[in-house]
C-alpha cells in the first residue's frame, strides 16, 4: 500500500526538485507533480482550500496526469540559459538607451552605419566621449575597411551636440554594454561546455 501526494508543478519547484525527489524516494509516499493546465477547476472557485480539495478528488480517482519532470541536468541547463536571456535583455535595454540619447542629440550615425556598436561605431562614439573635434581627420582612423560610408558622410551624421552629462552617460552605457558582452561570451562557452559534458 502506498499514499499518493499530488502537488501542482510550478517553476518554484525547479530549484528544489532534486531535494523533493530524494525525500519522497525514502518514504512510502508517491509524489505526483500535476500539470496546472490539466487540473483546472471550474471558474469561480479560486481559493487554495477549494483547489486542494479538487486536486485531492482527482488524485483519489487517479485522474492526475503526471507533469514532465526535468532531470537535474536539464534544470541546470535551464538556469544557465535563463541567465543568458537576462544578460541579453539588459544589453538590449542599454543599446536602446544609447540610441535614444543619440537621437535626442540629433546624431544620425544609425542612418549610415548598420551597427553603431561595431568597432567603427564605438570608435566614433569615443570621439564624442573624449571631447574630440569631429572632422574628416579625426573620423578617418575610426573607419574599418569594410565600411563603405565616406568620412564626409559620417562627419555630417555627427553634427549633433552632446552635453558633458550626455557624454558621461554615453561612456557609462558603452562600458556597461561591453561588460554584458563579455559576460555573454563567457556564459556561451560555459553552456557549450555543459552541453558537451552532460548531453554528449
TrEMBL record:
Residues 77-104, 170-197 form a coiled coil. InterPro entries: Transp_IS110-like_N (IPR002525), Transpos_IS110 (IPR047650). Pfam families: DEDD_Tnp_IS110 (PF01548). Keywords: Coiled coil. Transmembrane segments: none annotated. Residues 34-105 form the Transposase IS110-like N-terminal domain. The keyword Cell inner membrane does not apply. GO terms for biological process: DNA transposition. One of its GO terms (molecular function) is transposase activity. PANTHER family: TRANSPOSASE, TRANSPOSASE FOR INSERTION SEQUENCE ELEMENT IS1111A. This is Transposase IS110-like N-terminal domain-containing protein. It comes from Streptococcus sp. SN-1.
Amino acid at each position: 500500500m502506498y499514499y499518493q501526494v499530488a502537488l501542482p508543478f510550478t517553476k518554484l519547484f525547479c530549484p528544489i526538485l532534486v531535494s523533493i525527489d530524494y525525500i519522497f524516494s525514502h518514504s512510502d509516499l508517491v509524489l505526483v507533480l500535476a500539470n496546472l493546465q490539466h487540473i483546472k477547476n471550474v471558474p469561480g472557485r479560486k481559493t487554495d482550500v477549494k483547489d486542494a480539495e479538487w486536486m485531492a478528488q482527482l488524485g483519489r480517482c487517479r485522474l492526475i496526469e503526471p507533469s514532465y519532470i526535468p532531470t537535474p541536468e536539464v534544470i541546470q541547463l535551464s538556469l544557465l540559459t535563463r541567465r543568458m536571456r537576462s544578460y541579453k535583455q539588459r544589453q538590449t535595454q542599454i543599446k536602446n538607451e544609447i540610441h535614444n540619447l543619440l537621437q535626442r542629440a540629433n546624431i544620425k550615425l544609425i542612418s549610415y552605419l548598420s551597427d553603431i556598436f561595431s568597432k567603427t561605431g564605438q570608435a566614433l562614439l569615443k570621439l564624442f566621449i573624449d571631447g574630440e573635434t569631429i572632422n574628416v581627420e579625426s573620423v578617418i582612423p575610426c573607419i574599418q575597411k569594410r565600411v563603405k560610408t565616406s568620412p564626409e558622410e559620417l562627419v555630417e551624421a555627427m553634427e549633433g551636440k552632446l552635453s558633458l552629462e550626455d557624454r558621461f552617460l554615453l561612456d557609462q552605457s558603452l562600458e556597461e554594454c561591453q561588460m554584458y558582452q563579455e559576460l555573454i561570451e563567457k556564459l556561451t562557452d560555459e553552456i557549450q561546455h555543459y552541453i558537451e559534458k552532460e548531453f554528449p
